[in-house]
Here is the input.
Amino acid sequence: MSKEFILKSTMILGAALCCLIPRIIAADPPKGKSPDPASLQRARDQVTMLDDLYKTAVVGINDTYVEQQSGVPAAVVAGKVFHAMRAKGYHNARLVDVTGKPKNDDNAAKTEFEKKAVNEIKSGKPRYEEIAEVDGKPVLRTATLVPAVNKLCASCHRAKVGDKLGTIVYEIFIK
Here is the structure.
């Protein structure tokens, strides 16, 4: 990344940074013009809200309905919700494994962004993002840490509470 790009990105995004995102790792600049800082912040806030909602729901489903490893994991329900949101055109979200041994092969990192995000999450960052372009429109791509938050998660994934299991990857149009 050139110094000029970093300086330009810092000036454009500086107004939009807040305590919600501890560190931004910039990607190559989109081909079109940079998104409005207020619009970018709204997209970041939306990711934060969705992340809290999905993670609260998954843990709540596990705690309420999944009593043993043979039960349907809440992540399966989350996948169905992600699919419904994508089908309605709201946003894209999916679970991506960071352990290197996904319970479902569909959860392996596929895109360059997902591969970068997995590396960043594995290195200790709780969140990674980049601004990109899809069909000529700016999008915010964000990945957030999914740890084993309780004994049931840890038991099913053969991990310890607190271990990094995956990431939820979001792609939201910046409007």
